[in-house]
Every structure is written in C-alpha cells, then in structure tokens.
Amino acid sequence: MKVIVVGGGAAGMMAAYTAASYGCETILLEKNEKLGKKIYITGKGRCNFTNACEVEDLFRSVVSNPKFLYSAFYSFTNQQVMDFVESHGTPYKIERGDRVFPVSDHASDVTGAFQKAMREAGVKVMLHTEVKNIAVMDGAVGGVETSDGFMEADRVILCTGGLSYPTTGSTGDGMRFAKKLGHSIITTRPALVPMNTKEDYIVAMQGLSLKNVNLCIYNGKKKLYDDFGEMLFTHFGVSGPLCLSASSRVGKTLDSAELRAEIDLKPKLDKDTLDQRLLREFKGNENKNISNVLGALLPKKMIPVFMELLNFSDEKKINSVTVEERNEIIRLLKHFPFTITSLRGFKEAIVTQGGVSVKEINPSTMESKLIQGLYFAGEVLDIDCYTGGFNLQVAWSTGYLAGMCSAS
Length: 408
Hints:
The chain is of the alpha+beta class. The chain has helices spanning 10-21, 55-58, 70-75, 78-87, 107-121, 173-180, 200-203, 241-254, 271-282, 290-294, 303-310, 323-334, 390-406, and strands at residues 2-6, 25-29, 50-51, 92-95, 99-102, 124-126, 131-137, 140-146, 149-152, 155-158, 185-191, 195-197, 209-219, 222-233, 237-239, 259-264, 336-343, 351-356, 374-376. The strands form five sheets. It has a six-stranded antiparallel beta barrel. It has a five-stranded parallel sheet with strand order 6-2-1-10-19, with helices on one face.
C-alpha cells in the first residue's frame, strides 16, 4: 500500500508516521523548506502541544463539531500524545490549565520528536514539493500532481491546514482540492483571534492587561459569551485569552452585527460589598480628588477613561460625590462597556473556523464519503477548539486515525 500525505504540519507528521508504522510505503509532501512550520510559533514558541485533562473533557473545548471527534480522540488520546513525544526524546511538563509543554520550552523539540519517529518508521519526506491537484479515477484516488510531476498512490491524506498564519504555508490548498472533488466547504473565518472595537477609549488603554475579570458579550439582549480570565487592550481593540476564546463563539454573529460587550472588573464582589468597599476608600479622604481614590480599585491607565465615562472633572472631590454618582461608579465597575465591530484577519488568527464539511467524512476512519482512498486530518476540516492545546490534539488524533485507517 502506497500512502501520500500532503502537508507536513502536526496532522501530516502524525498521519505519515502512523501509516508507515502500519507497514505502508509512505511519502510526506511539504511545500515549505521545513516541517512543522506552524508548530514553531504555537504557544509563543513554546508549543502547548496538548492538554492533560480527562479525555471526556476534551470535547467541551471543541467549538465546532465535537461529536465528530469521538473515534479520533479515543483512538489516540492526549495521554498517548504525551507518551509518544516523551518516548521520542522530548520530556513534557504540565502547567496551569493542564496545558502541556516540552520541558525545554522549545517548540522545535516537539517537531523533532515527530521527525525522529518518522525516520524510524521509514517515512520518505520531500520538502519544497507543492501539490497542485489530487488525481481521481472512477471515484477513487490515484495519486497527486506536484510541481515536479505525477506521483501515484493508493491513498492520499490531506493535512494542509486552514487559512490562519498564511506565512506558514496555510493558504487553503486542501479546501480547494476538496471543493474541486465535490466536497462542501463550510464558510471560513478567523478564530482564536483578537477583535476590533469601536470606542476610542479602548485604544487609549492599549498595553493594559486585566486579570481575574469577567467578560460578557451580547447580541441585543441575547448573551453569546460569558467567561472569567485575562484580557488585553490593544491599538485596535481587545485581545488576550478571554477575547481569543470569545472570538470563536461570536465570529458568525459578527458577520452581520456589532456586539455589545461588558467587563466585570470586580467579579468576586457583589454590588453591596463593592459599595461598602468604596465607602471605606472614601472615609478620611473626603477632600481628595476622586481620581486618587479610584487608584485603589483600578489600574492607573483606566482611571482617565473612568473619569471621562462618569463625566467627572479631574478636580472633582470625594466630598462632592452624590449617592447617584457612587452608584454609577459601582455600575461601571461591574458593567464596563464597549462595542466589538469585527474580528481581526487570518494573519493574526491561531486557527481557522470552517473548512471541509465533516458530514462528508467518515468519523471512524477520516475517509471521504465521496472519494475512495481520500482522507482528511487536522485544521483543513470544519473543526476548531479553544486555546489550551486542544487544536493540536485534534491534529494528532485525526492524523493518527487517518494514518491507521489508510493502511487497511
């Protein structure tokens, strides 16, 4: 059995290794100058390559089509990924949120582990080799057309990635191939991506990071997102873990509407407790400017914005604050508002939402239901997850399943 794997990222390396380990003559084709180019930039270069949660909990972190992954996740679990990487020379460590990293903090070591495994399994790797077309005859795969000519194959596994970080080679090739062969492509959009905002005062706080806050996003009165964590103000809007996760939930709605967002800056305090805290801060400071006392409750960079939204002058004294104004301060602390206008682009997105419709893929094998011998794995599929190592786990699991089943 001859298997060609198209794309040398996470899913492709796993698929190639697995097919070869099951006895197939396996060729991995990569158009870049090296394998795993996107892996090198994941986790800020440290590579959060999976998550150490219980297998059942993996599904809760999948945004699109979690049920499709049942066979994949149980065929090659997160624990098996950790064992695999460690057994090929890269020990791992588990950090906050069960995120798993190489002990070295070098993403290159994860790629190195897979390269070592592929060498041992006998995978032939061909770099600088771009696939132009998938050859199909009588409803079955026959091989691929590359920049160097035709290559015959009994099975082809497409692991070409999505559209995020196009500089790494993720330019949608696999989706184009799939569409040409009759597959449906679910509308693609950036996911796990920063978001643009409307208000000037958000941009005025660029560089400010907020921790232990709660973010809610609404479409009218309907709540679309509600979570606790960290976020960051930027020169265009908002970013950070909370906002990246939110982008995957609200992206589709943003196609047609701006969204209202609120930050609870003191989520552990209810309004009454916060009022008592405010009164304590006021006591003994009646002749001071209100901006001085707000420093006990807010980051310095936020104080001018608060003063502006409260319509307070810079010289406003605490002794002049009315009950109504104090209630307004509390309201703003619990419901700090801004407007999300759009997502940032694919150049800044960690993953792609959308892709080849999973309705046309056999979830038990990763084989196309339309073309015999054509398999898919990784981000080319309409599957995306939250941050935390889950998207790479999808790549490893689907790559393994595709590689194993292509050998049968």
